[in-house]
Structures are given as structure tokens and as C-alpha cells.
Amino acid sequence: MEENHLFPVFFKLHRLQVLVVGGGNIGLEKANAMLENCPQANVTIVSMDFLPELTSLTHQYPNITLVQKSFSCGDLLGKDLVIAATNDRELNYHVWETAKCSKVLINVADTPDLCDFYLGSIVRKGNLKIAISTNGKSPTVAKRLKQVLQEAIPDTIDEVLNKLSLIRDKLTGDFSAKVKKLNSLTDVLVKSERDPL
Length: 197
Ligand SMILES: C[C@@]1(CC(=O)O)C2=NC(=C\c3[nH]c(c(CCC(=O)O)c3CC(=O)O)Cc3[nH]c(c(CC(=O)O)c3CCC(=O)O)/C=C3\N/C(=C\2)[C@@H](CCC(=O)O)[C@]3(C)CC(=O)O)/[C@H]1CCC(=O)O
Ligand SMILES: NC(=O)c1ccc[n+]([C@@H]2O[C@H](COP(=O)([O-])OP(=O)(O)OC[C@H]3O[C@@H](n4cnc5c(N)ncnc54)[C@H](O)[C@@H]3O)[C@@H](O)[C@H]2O)c1
Description:
The chain is an alpha/beta fold.
């Protein structure tokens, strides 16, 4: 089997500065994905022109800024993450080179080989979030799996998480005693009805 070296992490986007270059379909898709998950995300989009949906997003989200211009190196100043999503492959490569010089993490939408990170397909149930990747093989399958899991996981999972969080805060004793208690309380989640143990 082909190797899968991706290591998932969950970013707190309201603490980071994100630059998206390109205000077309893909710029919109990526900006939407970030803002739906983190409405306070700081997202600047630099583009020659913008889809009207992106202009509408500025009314909904306080921290999105549209800058109508051609990309230049200075746009990367102060940025933590960059998504290059123009329809110009050479320009996307130039954005990648600039990001690498500045040690900024970059996703190049038309070139997975240049991506430091991929966006995942995201299942959300209150406090639960599951990010799905297919190692870049089929974003469509990632999207379908998201729909399957969204249906399969009960909405009550959020109540379980909130109750466990309360219990977790109240537990006393040393770390290993707490881990033991939490594991025994949640045992039921992993034991099937047919499991005699
Ligand atoms: C998961 C999701 C997250 C998001 O974007 O928020 C995402 N793509 C989504 C949808 C989607 N993207 C594409 C289609 C059309 C059908 C198809 O190709 O399957 C659909 C389906 C649709 O829109 O219905 C086309 C496409 N995508 C990439 C390329 C370039 C290439 O592969 O060369 C091309 C070809 C462009 C062309 O042909 O011109 C590349 C990437 N897309 C990724 C993520 C990363 C890998 C994730 C993984 O490991 O699985 C990666 C590598 C980089 C990145 O973008 O981060 C989001 C699901 C949203 C949801 O959950 O609803
Ligand atoms: N990763 C993914 O999920 C995915 C999915 C589909 C397509 N793609 C790829 O993403 C790329 C973008 O697709 P799209 O549909 O958004 O294209 P699009 O034509 O809708 O948008 C391109 C945007 O880039 C902007 N742009 C062009 N030159 C610029 C410059 N010099 N400075 C700033 N902005 C500039 C344009 O103004 C436009 O807003 C394509 O190469 C496509 O193959 C990626």
C-alpha cells in the first residue's frame, strides 16, 4: 500500500493570520470552509476580482478582508498560513516560492505536491470535529464519507462530551487514577452488545 504520511492537527484560526490568493470558486470554497468552522478566523483575500459570494461573506464575518490587486510578495507579511488559489499555475508557484522564503505554511490548490497541508472534509457534531483526508486521492470520497459519518453519529454525542467534561473537571487524585476512571466510565462506548466481556 502507498504510504500516508499526513499528520492531522486542528488549528485555532482566530489566533492566526490567513492569506488566500485568488477570489474565484476555489478561493470562495476554502474561505467558506475556514469561516464556517471558525467565524472569527482572520482571512485576507488578495485577488484581481472577487465572486459576489465573497463580497457577501464580508457582511457576515467581521474578520475577512478583500484586497483587490495583483499578488505581490508584501502580501505575505505577518501571515501564518497561505492558500494559493488563482487560475494561474505559474503565479501559484511564485506564491509558493515566496511563502517558502518567509517560512509560512502554504496550500497550493492546483498542486498537491507543493502543499504543506491539505484541508480536510469536516464532520461536525457540537464539540466533536472529525477531519477526513484521502491522502489527496479523492476529495469526492472524503466528502461522501463526511456525509455518511454526519448521519451515523448521533447528535447526543455532544451531551456525552459535555457530561464527561464536567466529570473530568471534578475528578480528583493523580493523573493515572483520573485516566482509569474516565476509561471505565466510557467503556460502554466501545463495547458491543454482543461482546460477552
Ligand atoms: C476535502 C476538501 C476540503 C476543502 O476544500 O475544504 C478538499 N477538496 C474538496 C472538494 C473537491 N475538490 C475537488 C473536487 C472535484 C472532484 C474530485 O477531484 O474529486 C471536489 C469535490 C466537490 O467539490 O464536490 C477537486 C480537486 N481537489 C484537489 C485538486 C488538485 C489535485 O488533486 O491535483 C482537485 C482537482 C482540480 C482540477 O481537476 O482542476 C486538491 C485537494 N482537495 C483537497 C480537499 C485536498 C485533499 C483532501 C484529501 O486528502 O482528501 C487537496 C489535495 C488540497 C486542498 O485543496 O487542500 C473538499 C471537500 C468538501 C466537503 O467536505 O464538502
Ligand atoms: N484544491 C481544490 O480543492 C481544487 C478544486 C478544483 C480546482 N482547483 C484548482 O484551483 C485553481 C483555481 O480555480 P478557480 O475555479 O477558483 O478559478 P477562478 O478562475 O474561479 O478564480 C481564479 C482567481 O484568481 C484570481 N487571480 C488571477 N491572477 C491573479 C493575480 N495575479 N493576483 C491575484 N489574483 C489573481 C482571479 O482574479 C480569480 O478571482 C485552478 O487551478 C483549479 O485547477 C483546486
